[in-house]
Amino acid sequence: MDESDIRNLLEAVKRGQQTIDSTVAKLRRLPYEDLGFAKVDHHRGLRQGYAEVVFARGKTPKQVTEIVRAMLRAKASHNILITRASKKTFAAVKPAARAAKLRAEFHELSGTISIERSRKMQGKGLILVVTAGTSDIPVAEEALVTARSMGNRAEAIYDVGVAGLHRLLEHRDKLAEARVIICVAGMEGALPSVVAGMVAAPVIAVPTSTGYGSSFGGLTALLAMLNSCASNVSVVNIDNGFGAGCVASVINKL
After folding, report:
1. Domain boundaries, the chain
2. DSSP-assigned letters across all residues of 195-246
3. What is the distance between the alpha carbons of residues 27 and 25, in angstroms, rounded to a whole number?
4. What pLDDT, in 10s, does the model give residues 88-113?
5. Per residue in 165-203, pLDDT tens?
6. CB burial class (10 A; 0-12, 13-18, 19+) of residue 21?
7. Can you name the residues that pair with 72 across neighbouring β-strands?
8. Is 151 exposed, middle or buried (0-12, 13-18, 19+ CB in 10 A)?
9. Cα dihedral across residues 178, 233, 239, 83: positive or negative
């Protein structure tokens, strides 16, 4: 539940469309619903402005599905997002969404599952996701799906890294338009510094594990981004497209 859900519930009580007992029953699920193996945080949307997101890795398809069913029972208006999911998890979740007359979509590149319940745009401007190379696209797609699921207009520009910088320069107008930029890069992780030097917007740098041995699974890119000389760069963890999309969404709503 978020603030709009609570307001709608109270307005329904005021108009006599909702009884006090049924309202209390709905509020009883706040702040969380205990499923035994998980405590579903229905209160998070009201507390933080965005709903709980399900991290599927390490959970069984059945566990993920039960969490999704609990979210669907809450009748909230927020979209449902599942990250780091497999095709087996999607096959389990899909019928649960269909039973609620909703459609689950599997974004195979990023391994995310989205269930859309609202198309309301809450972000004030464009979130632009930029990658250095094609190999960085899976992480970028996670950021893109996350930003869109959280009610933002989000677009992507792929494969414009420093090995061919002219590819980036033709997108100067789009870079200038963006309110927040997510810059995803592996190898030496140089692209965020270049992009940040071209714009006034905050740049969220995402190091990826793309690279050869001395990239140390993304550690080289992470350290390079942390040492950026561009003062408008902030950095999230290696391969953390979700974290970048979430932070970008928070910024875009301010």
Report:
1. 3-115, 126-253
2. HHTT-SS-EEEEE-S-S-GGGGGGHHHHHHHHT-S-TTEEE--TT-HHHHHH
3. 6
4. 999 999 999 999 999 999 999 999 99
5. 999 999 999 999 999 999 999 999 999 999 999 999 999
6. exposed
7. none
8. buried
9. negative
Domain 126-253 carries which CATH code? 3.40.50.1970
Residues forming beta bridges with residue 154, ordered by sequence position: 127
Pairing outcome for strands 33-34 and 39-40: antiparallel
Residue 61 one-letter amino acid: P
What is the token pair recorded at 236?
């999230």
Which amino acid is residue 106, in one-letter code? F
pTM recorded for the entire structure:
0.87
192 preceded by cis ω (within 30°)? Answer: no
Backbone angles phi, psi at 105, to 5 degrees: -120, 130
